[in-house]
Amino acid sequence: MAEIIENTGSGKKEGGRRAPKRMGAHIDMTPMVDLMCLLITFFMLTTAFSKPKVMEITMPEKDKPEDVKDAPKVDAHRTYSILLTGDDKVFWYHHGEVPEGQTFPTTIRKTDFSKDGLRKILLNKNEKVFSEIFELKDKVKKGELVLVEDSLNAQIKRIKKSDKKAPIILIKADEKTKYKSIVNVVDEMAICNIANYAIVDIAPEEIALIEQAPK
Amino acid sequence: MAKIKLKRAQPHVDMTPMVDLFSLLLTFFMLTASFKPQEAKVIDSPMSVSEKATPDKDVISVLVSNDDKVFFSMDNGKDTSAHYRNQLITKINDLYRLSLTEKEITKFGQGSSFGMPMKKLKAFLNEENADTKEAMQTGIPMDTVGDQYPELAIWVAYARELNPLAEVAINGDAEANYKTVKKVMDVMQNAGVNRFNLVTNLQKEEATLEDIK
In chain B, where are the structural domains located? Predict the structure, then answer.
C-alpha cells in the first residue's frame, strides 16, 4: 500500500504522466449516422423502382367442339408463325412461302430474342404501322402535338387497325418452352406495335420441323 | 501586454439526441408496421416493357413456381373489411366438408398464397414449423377427377363469385415451363376467365426507326 501511495505521490509531481490512463472510450458517431442516412435514402428510392408490373393478355375464347367451323381464311401472305422451344430458341416461317397445296413449310428459319433477331424481322414486316406510331409518339414527346395519354392510346389503336396489310403473327410453343420465352415474344409484339397476334396450339408437323432444324 | 489567447472551441456537435430519436422512430415503425404474410414461394418474374401497375386489391393471384407448382391467393377486398378470404374458406369448408375450426378459418383469412389439395389444408393451417409447412406445399391440383372440376377451377370460380370485380393475375417464374402456365390458363378459361394479367418486372426497351434499317 505504501507503494501505491508513493506512486500517486510521484505521479502528481511529474505532472500527471504516471496518472492511470482514463479508460473512457469516446466514439465519434458522425460517420455512422452519415452512412445510415445514405442507406435509408438509397433503399427508399430503390424499392420504389422494383414495383412489379402486369402485362395484359387476352386469350381467344375456347371453342366448343360444335362451334368449330372452318377456320376463317387468313391471307397467307400476311401471316407468320413463330415457333418457340426450350433454351430460348426461336424459329419462324412465312405462310406465304409454304408450297401450293401444303399446310406447313419444308424448312423453318432460326432467330433469337436479341435486338437483331426477332425484333428486326418483326420491324421489317411491320414497317408502315411502326413508323406511323413512332412518329406520332415522337411528336407528342417533342411537344409538337398535344395529346392526353388516353387520346394517344386511342390513336395508336386506330393506326394499328387501319393497316389491312399489317402482319398477323401466330405464336406457337412446344412442350419444352419456358414461360419467359412466351413473355418475351408477347413483349416483342408490344415493342414492335404488332396489331394482330394470337397464341395458338402447335401442330405435330411443326414440332417435327423444330427437331429437324439445325441447332 | 497580456496575450489574450482566444480559445478556438472546436465545433463539437453532440449526436446523442439524434441517435436517440432515430432509435425511437425505428422502434415505433417496427411495432406499427404490419408484415405482409409470406408468399408461398419466391417468384422470379420475367422482364417486360409493360408499365401497367400490379393491382394489389381486388385481385386473384395464381402463382406458378419454377418447379411447376401452382399456388392460389385472394385479397380481402379494397379495404379488407369484406373479408373475402374468410368468406371463401367458409364456403369451401361447407361444400367440401373440410371440418375446419373457427380458429383455422381466421388463420386462413390472414394468410396469403397456399398450394395444396383441399383435404390437406387443415393440417397445413395447424402446422407451426416453417420447414414442414414448406414441404406441405405441393401445389394445387389441376387435373380433373371424374366429372369434378379441377380444384384450381373451384377456388377461382368461388373467388370470382364473391368478388366479381377481381382480376386474375398470373405470377409465373421465368423458368417455369410454359406448359404449366398454359394448363393454368386452360383451367381458368374453362371456368370462364379469358383475360389475364401476367406479372412482370419492368425493363424498358424501345425500338426506333433506325432499327428497321
Answer: 47-202
* pTM across the whole model: 0.74
Say whether both A87 and A171 belong to one domain.
yes
Say if A7 falls within a structural domain: no
pLDDT tens, residue by residue, A133-188: 888 888 888 888 888 888 888 888 888 888 888 889 999 999 999 999 999 999 99
For the domain that residue A204 is a member of, what is the CATH number? Answer: 3.30.420
Residue A49, pLDDT above cutoff 70: no
Indicate yes or no: CB of A55 within 8 angstroms of CB of B172. no
Quick count: other Cβ atoms within 10 Å of Cβ B142? 16
- Domain-embedded: residue A202: yes
**Rounded CA gap, A110 and A81, in Å?**
12
Interface contacts A/B by beta carbons within 8 Å? 146
Cβ-Cβ contacts under 8 Å, A46 against chain B: none
User: With contacts defined as CB-CB under 8 Å, which chain A residues touch B56?
Assistant: none
Out of B52, B173, B211, name the one closest to residue A120 (CB): B211
- Same domain, yes or no: A144 and A200: no
**In angstroms, what separates the C-alpha of B62 from chain A's closest C-alpha?**
13
Amino acid, single-letter form, for residue B80? T
Query: Is residue A130 within 8 Å of B212, Cβ to Cβ?
Result: yes
Do A78 and A161 lie in one domain? The reply is: no
Written as one letter, the residue type at B48 is S
In chain A, the number of structural domains is 2
The more confident residue out of B117 and B28 is B117
Q: What value of ipTM does the predicted structure carry? A: 0.76
Q: Distance (Å, rounded) from C-alpha B52 to C-alpha A114?
A: 24
What is the distance in angstroms between the Cα of A30 and the nearest Cα belonging to chain B? 7
Q: Which domain holds residue A205?
A: 74-125+167-215
pLDDT tens for residues B12-59?
Answer: 777 788 888 888 887 887 777 666 667 777 888 888 888 888 887 888
Within-domain flag for A16 = no
> Are A108 and A180 within one domain?
yes
